[in-house]
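tool_call: predict_structure(chain=1)
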Amino acid sequence: MNKEYYTNQKKQKKTFKKYRKYIGRILLWAGIGLASALFFPGGALMGVIAGINSELDAVSIAFLAQWGIAALGLGGAVYNGIKAHYAAKKIDDSQEEEENIVDCIVRDKENLERKVENLSKTKVKEEENVKTADLKLVKGNQTVTNDKDLEEEEQRTLKKSA
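tool_result:
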């Protein structure tokens, strides 16, 4: 059980690291997309392309480049969001598995405690049986087997000595 528990803990840690990595990538890609949408240097790009092609082509290329990078950022964020969702699901499954392992360990502990308790009761009974067997005193040819017989034997001994 302990090996399963520690294996599950390692799996949980590894998955959590992946989850954090995907969350970081989501922020990175969302930042790239947002920066492209808001701060893209379209004027500089249009000036360079206008020298080579027509102004209409320059505007189209700048527009497509700006929103293409924004879409790429959004796509990267969505992709990593899906990966993060699956990693979070794996973490939840690992936590449920950990709870099951802990429940099994607790049940095993309770069963062992009951077993020890039963064994100690059995040992006490055996010790009592040994004590009663030891009380059987042999005097001469006569065997004394219970308390009444012991008392009678003591009384006879006392009468003889008196």
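agent: The first strand starts at residue 137 and ends at 139. Proceeding to next step.
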